[in-house]
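INFO  loader      accepted 1 record
INFO  loader      residues=227
INFO  predictor   begin
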Amino acid sequence: MRWLLLPVEVKARGLEGRLLLGAHAAAQGWKVVVGRKSQLNSSVRDLPRGLYFDKSIQSLALNQIRYIKALGNTYAAIDEEGLVHEGGATAYVKRRFTHETLAETRPFCCWGDAQAEVVRAVEPSLADRVVVTGNPRVDLWRPEMHGLHRRADEVRADVGRFVFFPSNFANVIGADGPERTARFGEITGHYADPAERARFDRYLDLRAGILDRLGDALVTLARSLPD
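INFO  predictor   done
INFO  writer      dumping tokens
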């Protein structure tokens, strides 16, 4: 019996894609476990052995990967941030995986050929681990999946017409945003590279500047759509 373990780190971002993947696996005869990543990891010793499918293979995950494999699982992953290479291919490689994490992963699933070519070029000895699969999160955009998003009609019926403005300013908002980014850069070793640290600093400055202007932009938008 084949088991698929699907950890979910951020519910709003990853749950629906994981459920879609799990449904397809179940249709092919797999038994599927979907759960909050922290809870699934704390229980993984007691779960059936199978294919553990994670959302990234950054350097900080190496001990976790080896532990999960030591229990008898196969470790596979996709990089949820692999579609667009912020800072270019060189920065992507430094931030999103290492030789050690890729060596422990089979397969490493890619959004498309562009990402796969970057990974294979950097790690030609591990090219056999890299496969192009697409991402279940994108499959959620297919026409037959549109019913998932009808909840917007329910919100509109309750509050009237609205504009939904998604954003992500975790790095620069709140008491520990910049500090958390700095800790990440130091733990992963990125800040040891002056060029990479300067890129992080420019990134934070850019995000802070956008946030500063966003308040005015939203007020202007609201006034232009009074109903």
